[in-house]
Task: inverse folding
């Protein structure tokens, strides 16, 4: 709120946040943070003690439900160790979540889905800076799993009964250095072309916004070359 000039001081921000129903501040470990002004706001009468209690109650209710105040022996989460991380059950759940969360914006002529039985003997090209680069596939707050668990588009498509060729065209999302010949060579010899483009955390994250939605660097040129 302060950064967007909705308020001018931490005190104003604390008052506005409390009155709007906010009860948690992500302060990055700052000792001098917004919610440290709550006692001052309370003393000035800008917020009431009842409002403060109403904001605190769900926080501690959640912490109690998570067992933070129980003896460790009563907390089922205390028995979990690293063996539970990336276990087959969790990886299968992650796969299910990924499959069910795809967003299809357009499907001209019913091109999708691609069926494995229809691809036998076909040539498939997967191109673009996101085609086989595990480092660019994760978002701002995503934990990065071990490389052996990461399936890039290329690695996933290579599990199909089809001849897969690959061409990045450019090595990273900024796509400043682009090899047109590499992309045209792969796409021109294919029956099906999968183009993998985007931005990634190198170009936009929280507090690092872009001025437009255009594809960075030569990515649009890469797409046009693949289509042509």
Result:
């Amino acid at each position: 709120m302060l950064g967007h000039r909705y308020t001018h001081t931490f005190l104003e921000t604390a008052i506005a946040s409390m009155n709007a129903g906010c009860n948690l501040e992500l302060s990055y470990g700052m000792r001098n943070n917004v919610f440290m002004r709550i006692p001052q706001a309370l003393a000035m009468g800008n917020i009431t003690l009842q409002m403060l209690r109403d904001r605190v109650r769900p926080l501690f209710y959640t912490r109690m439900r998570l067992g933070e105040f129980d003896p460790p022996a009563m907390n089922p989460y205390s028995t979990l160790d690293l063996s539970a991380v990336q276990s087959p059950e969790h990886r299968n759940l992650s796969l299910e979540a990924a499959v069910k969360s795809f967003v299809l914006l357009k499907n001209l002529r019913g091109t999708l889905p691609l069926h494995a039985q229809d691809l036998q003997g076909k040539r498939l090209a997967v191109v673009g800076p996101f085609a086989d680069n595990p480092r660019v596939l994760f978002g701002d707050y995503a934990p990065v799993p071990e490389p052996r668990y990461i399936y890039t588009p290329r690695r996933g498509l290579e599990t199909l009964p089809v001849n897969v060729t690959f061409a990045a065209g450019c090595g990273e999302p900024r796509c400043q250095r682009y090899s047109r010949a590499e992309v045209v060579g792969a796409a021109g010899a294919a029956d099906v072309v999968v183009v993998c483009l985007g931005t990634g955390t190198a170009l936009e994250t929280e507090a690092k916004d872009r001025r437009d939605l255009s594809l960075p660097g030569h990515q649009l040129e890469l797409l046009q070359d693949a289509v042509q």
Q: What stands out?
A: The mean pLDDT is 91. The two ends are 47 Å apart (CA to CA).
